[in-house]
Structures are given as C-alpha cells and as structure tokens.
Amino acid sequence: MILMALDRKDFLVLSELYEDARMPVSEISRKTGIQRDSIVYRINKMKKDGVIKSFVPVLDSAKIGFPIYSYVTLSMKSINSEKEKSFLSFCEKNPFITYIASLSGKWDYEIVISAENIEHLNAVLKEIRNNFSELIQVYESTLILSELKYDFLLGLVDVKTRNK
After folding, report:
1. What pTM value is reported for the model?
2. Under CATH, which architecture does the 61-143 domain have?
3. 8-56: which CATH architecture?
C-alpha cells in the first residue's frame, strides 16, 4: 500500500467536498482561495490514488423507514472457507445488512443491520442464526441510539495536514 501525502490544500478541498460533494469547483476555489486548476488536479489525483473512493449521498436511515440501526458482532466456530463464503455471500445479498467487516480479536465479524422496527431486527437476526447456526459461536447485538460523530475520516486528514 502506497501512502499518499496530503497537504493542507488537499484538506481544504476535501472539507468543502465533505460539506457538498456536488459543489462546483468555482465555489470551492472561492471558499478556499485555491486556483480552480489546482482543485481539479487535486481531486483527480485523490480519486486516481484511491484517497477518494466515491461520491455518494449519505442517507438518514430513519427518514427512509429504517429507524433501528444495530451493530452485531459475531464470533465464529469451525470456520472453513466454504462456510465463510456462504455467510459473507448471504450478508452481501441481504439488503438490511448495510455494513460488513472482518475483525481481529474476540470477534470475527461485525455487521450493521438496519431495520423497520425491533421485530424486523429480530427476524433478520433469527434468519442469520438459523442459516448459520453451525458457524456462529456467539453474537452480540448493540442498538445505536444516536450517532454523535460521523466524519468519514476527515478529522484524520486534518491531523496529518496541520503542519504542512
């Protein structure tokens, strides 16, 4: 993995894109004082180097009918390649599972389930347990009451670029 060195101007551009990814380059230039050509170059370079993965809207799950948001951590037993692929395929295809991560430590996986209500969350959890009972050793579900910080790593870019 090649580490891309970001500078303060990159941070300023990212900050504006973070506020509105559809903001015109001319507006970013006006707000940051950076030349338009430089902004276009920096955005294209960050996209090419994989720093910017995509420009996507962030939806409020409650406003689209899914107010229940739960982190579920799972510890697996007797894990083998075939069973693991089946589990991951199930999670990837399930529209209510909105995040999947492989972990180190006590838990093997973390998934996020978005649900219409508690009964719906329970139904999704039961479906996972029923389909993969031979694979899941233990799981823990934690409801998210409110998100207090959601910054898509912009704060880390700020730390890295403060003295540049």
Report:
1. 0.80
2. 2-Layer Sandwich (3.30)
3. Orthogonal Bundle (1.10)
